[in-house]
Amino acid sequence: MRARHLASAAVLALTTALLAAAPAPAQPTAPPPGGRSAPARPAGHTEVPVEGGSARFATPPALLAALKAHGVVIANVDAQGTVTPHHDSGGISLGIKGGTVTNSGGKVGGELRFADSGIALINRRNNKVVKVTGFTVDLGQGALRARLDRGPKMTVGTFTRPGIVASIDTDAARLRMNTGITVTAPAATKLNAALGTTGFSGGGPLLHARVDAALDPSVDLDTALNLGHRPTPSDAGRRSAGASGAGEPSER
């Protein structure tokens, strides 16, 4: 009987020792505020804030001539929806109020959000007016979106996305783009119907945009946007001198 008690005591002692030696179960990590864990962000894909700037939207000469032939003229629309005459053939400037810029596969990504003002199209022959406001530029999709007469936002035009390295001025902390925008077929149909004209054609020219957006100057843009090595003026000079010394014309 005593031997049985001793054996039971030995088993109990061994079990206790094994449990004490086992690692403690991992405790669940408390979620961050909001209940969502932040996803890992790949290097070079940081969203750089846009702090301001402006864009100049000009009507291409071919479209401007077609609109004038149909009696359509262009005017300004302020944030309250008031239409004012516009006589500058060089285009209309809109302020940039926010957004972000990213490196999307070597192309400019992100979004630019513009001030609430916009452009009005006026058909003087029938007094029909279309207000185009609420501009946003989807840099990742190459799309210009806006509202026609305060309706739902739609893609009114598309453009070729520029390369990230050529578009970012790291010294000035600016995004600069100079691109043509073509009108989408749905937007052309809506604009023609609203104006009572046939001046717009899907895939045809819509606007020419010259963008100058101010980026957050506190961000290391080379690292955040994975811009890589940018040749300095001295590098370019050495390459040019080397090419000339080899009997080949220097690159212009």
Compute the number of helices.
6
Structural class: alpha+beta
User: Ends: how far apart?
Assistant: 104 Å
Number of E-type strands: 12
* Rg calc: 30 Å
SSE string: HEHEEEEEEEEHEEHEHH
Order of strands across the main sheet: 1-4-5-7-8-9-11-12
Q: Can you give the helix content as a percent range? A: 10-25%
The poorly predicted ranges are 1-7, 9-19, 31-43, 231-252
The outline comes out as elongated
Report the portion of residues in β strands. Answer: 35-45%
Main sheet characteristics: 8 strands, antiparallel, barrel
Summarize model confidence as the mean pLDDT: 81
Offer a quick outline of the entry.
With 252 residues, the protein is of the alpha+beta class. It has helices at 2-21, 61-69, 164-167, 185-195, 221-224, 233-245, and strands at 48-58, 72-77, 83-85, 92-104, 107-114, 118-123, 128-138, 143-148, 154-158, 168-169, 174-183, 205-215.
Explain this structure.
With 252 residues, the protein is α+β, with helices and mostly antiparallel strands. It has an 8-stranded antiparallel beta barrel with strand order 1-4-5-7-8-9-11-12. It is elongated, with a radius of gyration of 30 Å. The N terminus and C terminus are likely disordered.
Key attributes of the depicted protein:
single chain, 252 residues, alpha+beta, 6 helices, 12 strands, elongated, disordered N terminus
Which helices and strands, and how do they pair?
Layout: H1 2-21, E1 48-58, H2 61-69, E2 72-77, E3 83-85, E4 92-104, E5 107-114, E6 118-123, E7 128-138, E8 143-148, E9 154-158, H3 164-167, E10 168-169, E11 174-183, H4 185-195, E12 205-215, H5 221-224, H6 233-245
Antiparallel strand pairs: 1-4, 1-12, 2-3, 2-6, 4-5, 5-7, 6-7, 7-8, 8-9, 9-11, 10-11, 11-12
